[in-house]
Specification:
Layout: E1 7-13, E2 18-22, E3 26-31, E4 45-51, E5 54-59, H1 61-64, E6 77-82, E7 92-97, E8 102-106, E9 111-113, E10 125-131, E11 134-139, H2 141-150, E12 160-161
């Protein structure tokens, strides 16, 4: 197998599931820091944090999907994701994780779509995959970013800094 047939990816633990992200879409995984919260905005938008001197929005993928998210704990991390189509309003954003993600190599030999799983069209999920004994959701990052751009909240000018 040629190396270009494999994609390094991150299995990101969430409250009740996991998502898989291409490693190239992730800038960094950082320790959780309490975000600066705004008075208005959807419940899935947890607030704003500073990453390398720039404010980025932090979201709960579970809550964006209309599910119950968990409270951040000592194992929580922030996955800093590059925007697919960077704009002046959104270059990067943070995704709350329940722990440290696992690096996996994905290739055609180990990857199968879970045909029994039918995603709700209202949720930003493309499909569920199976890799040997693992399962994960493939998020629709374009819809996640559209949700971030379309919400009516202006980031607070004093977000919490990530370390």
């Amino acid at each position: 197998m040629q190396s270009n047939d494999e994609i390094y990816s991150l299995l990101v633990p969430l409250h009740g599931d996991r998502v898989i992200l291409p490693r190239a879409s992730v800038a960094e995984v950082v320790r959780y820091a309490e975000p600066e919260q705004s008075a208005v905005g959807p419940d899935w938008l947890l607030g704003t944090v500073v990453w390398h001197g720039k404010p980025i929005p932090l979201l709960s993928f579970e809550k964006l999907c209309g599910e119950e998210g968990s409270e951040p704990g000592s194992r929580s991390r922030i996955i800093v994701v590059y925007a697919l189509n960077p704009t002046s309003d959104l270059v990067m954003y943070g995704l709350l994780a329940e722990g440290f993600p696992q690096i996996v190599r994905v290739n055609r030999e180990v990857l199968l779509q879970d045909l029994a799983y039918q995603p709700d069209p209202a949720k930003p999920i493309l499909c569920r995959i199976r890799m040997i004994n693992e399962t994960a959701l493939i998020p629709d990052l374009q819809r996640v970013e559209l949700a971030l751009l379309s919400q009516d909240e202006t980031p607070d000018p004093k977000p919490t800094a990530l370390q």
